[in-house]
Amino acid sequence: MDALGAGWDGQDLAPELSGRAGDSCDAGAMLRYGSVPYLNARPLLDGLAAEVGPIRMAVPSELVKLLRAGEIDVAMAPVVAAFEDPSLCIVPGAAVAAHGPVESVLLFCRKPPVECAVVGLDTSSRTSAALVRVLFQDRWKTSPTFVPRAPDPDLTQLDADAALLIGDPALQARWVGPPPVDLAAEWNAWTGLPFVFAAWLARDAQSAAEAEGPLRRAAARGKRDLDELADDGARDLHLDVGRMRHYLHECLSFDFDATDRAGLERFRSHWAGLRDGPGGAAVPKMPASRRN
Prior knowledge:
Layout: E1 33-35, H1 48-52, E2 55-57, H2 60-68, E3 74-78, H3 80-84, E4 89-98, E5 105-109, E6 118-122, H4 127-139, E7 145-149, E8 162-166, H5 167-171, E9 181-182, H6 183-191, E10 195-202, H7 205-224, H8 226-237, H9 241-251, H10 258-272
Parallel strand pairs: 1-2, 1-3, 6-7, 6-8
Antiparallel strand pairs: 3-10, 4-10, 5-8, 5-9
Helix pairs in contact: 4-6, 8-9
C-alpha cells in the first residue's frame, strides 16, 4: 500500500516519495484535488497524492467553499454541492456510500426523533445535515429547530434533544443515552435504496475526464488495501482494529453504480422539497462517454 504521507489531520498531503504512480504524466496531475479527511475516504485516496500532487484536506462544508471559489478543481465532496451547482460533474467510478448501517453518520437522541424539539447539526456536515432535515420533515413528520453544533465527539453534556455527528468524530463519540439513529440505515429502511454521502465532483466535464483515470487507480489500490487502511485508521483514531475493518469492509461501498445513482436521485427529490431549502437541480452530469 502506498503511504498516505504526513499531515492527514486537515493539512495538505505531500506527494509520496515512493508511490507506484510517482512517474505519472497523466493530465489529471495538472488539476488541484481536495478531499474530506475522514477514514471513510482513505480507500479512495490510496497512492493518489503520488500521482497527482498534494491533496487539500478539509471538512465537507469547507470543501464546498473551496470548489466554489475555484481553489480546487476536483474534490471528494458532499453530494449536496452538486445539487446546488448543476455545473459540477460527478467523476464516474467511485463514491462514499452505504447500503445499510454506516456507523459514522449518527443522530444521537435523548428521546425519540418525533419528540425532539431542538437538534444540533454538525457544522462540518453538508449532505448529512440535509439528510437529517429530510428525515425529520418527510420520514418523522415533525419540525424541530435546527441549531449549529461543533463536531465534538463528547456528547455526554448535550444541551439539545438530539445532535448529528459525522465521520471520525462519530466513530469516537462518547455518549450515555439511547443507541443513536444510524442515518444510512434509517434511509435504507425507508426507501430501500443506498445513500451516497460524497462523490468525486469536478468543476467541469473536462476536469472530470482528466481526473477519472487517477481516481479509478486510487480506488482500485484502496479496495486492495482495505485491511491495512483499517489498521492504520484504528491506530490513528485509537479504536479497535476489528471494528475498523468491519467499518471499511461491511459498512461502506466505494463504487458508484446505477443503484447508488437511484438513491442519489431520490435524495435530491427530497432535498428539493425541503420547506426551508433552495429549489432542486438535476442530479449532476457525468461525461457522456464514460458513465457507469
